[in-house]
Amino acid sequence: MAPPPKHFAVGDQVTHDVYGLGRVVALEEGIAALVDFGSTQTRILSPYAKMTKL
After folding, report:
1. What is the mean predicted confidence (pLDDT) over 28-49?
2. CB atoms < 10 A from the CB of 19, how many?
3. Angstrom distance (rounded) from CA 35 to CA 51
4. What are the two backbone dihedrals, phi and then psi, of residue 15, each rounded to the nearest 5 degrees?
């Protein structure tokens, strides 16, 4: 059985396996999240396999 989809909100603090700590700055619901990792902003595509909300 597949794990439930991850849900994020603007302002959520997250950690990513590649980019490290960041904060969600914009969402395309069900498609992607724009995350500010300090040195870069990156669009992370759903299902956010490497990203976890803190």
Report:
1. 95
2. 19
3. 10
4. -125, 145
